[in-house]
TrEMBL record:
Its main location: membrane. This is ATPase H+ transporting accessory protein 1b. PANTHER family: V-TYPE PROTON ATPASE SUBUNIT S1 (PTHR12471:SF2), VACUOLAR ATP SYNTHASE SUBUNIT S1 (PTHR12471). It comes from Amphilophus citrinellus (Midas cichlid). The keyword Transmembrane helix applies.
Length: 274
């Protein structure tokens, strides 16, 4: 490369001198028959063609449990966990990890029952009913009862106090339990209802208005709009507004002096003798 540089420079100089002597406009392009350096190329198979970002694999989301009636899907249930506990010292059992069968499930215009039977011996059933309420002039769906069976034992829970939604909607709640902030209340006729524990995480169910679809309708969530934190914030703001209004009211009640000393009159003398 270095040895050929003077020869190339001489050729370029001669060409430029020749063109200047003829006094004609020109455009020169310097090129070669082959590159002086050969760049090695890797085959496509040896190059990385995928994403190289390190990220966690997206977990597979299990499909919802669907019961098909005579006209198509009529009951759907999905939950991240369906955990049950039979005693204080027994471990939690997550039924959502098992694949259930649906014998005993049915649905009609007013009642839908989803019965889940597991190979571990547990049986879990949900009974939803649709009723018309004249006050709201619409149909509402309520989860009336939740029943858990294990072998020859059973427990029944009433759920219609807090689990309800318009009939065309689905119901969703992050936590449905029979303890703590409970939505499931034990039936007084069952002794096991007060001992057994149910904990449903990310629970969603719909028993009416599926319209032959495999997707849930709009979810009516159990979380109230005014949470305790929102109420505390509103009360704090209201208290501060009351203090501000009271302060402005007191300032407006201050009266200015409308009579002043006459500058043309005699001044006030204060004797300083004892």
């Amino acid at each position: 490369m270095k040895s050929s540089a003077p020869r190339v420079d001489e050729i370029i100089g001669n060409a430029l001198s020749l063109m200047k002597a003829k006094k004609v406009p020109y455009t020169a392009i310097y090129t070669g028959l082959r590159p002086s350096r050969v760049i090695s190329e890797l085959p496509v198979s040896d190059q990385s063609v995928g994403r190289t970002l390190l990220q966690a694999a997206v977990p597979d989301v299990k499909p919802p449990i669907i019961f098909n009636g005579s006209g198509g899907p009529c009951i759907m249930l999905w939950a991240q966990n369906l955990s049950v506990k039979l005693s204080e010292n027994s471990p939690w059992i997550n039924l959502a990890e098992e694949t259930p069968t649906l014998p005993g499930s049915f649905c009609d215009g007013s009642t839908s029952r989803l019965a889940l039977t597991y190979s571990s011996g547990f049986s879990l059933s949900f009974v939803l009913r649709q009723r018309f309420y004249s006050v709201s002039a619409r149909n509402w769906s309520t989860l009336d009862t939740v029943e858990l069976k294990y072998r020859n034992l059973s427990a029944s829970y009433i759920a219609n106090r807090g689990i309800y939604t318009p009939a065309e909607y689905s119901f969703h709640c992050q936590s449905v339990t029979n303890f703590g902030d409970a939505l499931l209340f034990p039936n007084i006729t069952d002794q096991n209802s007060s001992e057994w524990r149910l904990n449903f995480i990310d629970f969603q169910i719909q028993g009416f208005g599926l319209s032959n679809s495999t997707d849930f309708s709009y979810a009516s969530d159990c979380a109230s709009f005014f949470t305790p934190a929102i109420w505390m914030g509103l009360l704090t703001v209201l208290l501060m507004l009351l203090i501000l209004v009271y302060g402005l009211h007191m300032i407006m009640q201050v009266n200015t002096m409308d009579r002043f000393d006459d500058p043309k009159g005699p001044t006030i003398s204060v004797p300083q003798t004892e």
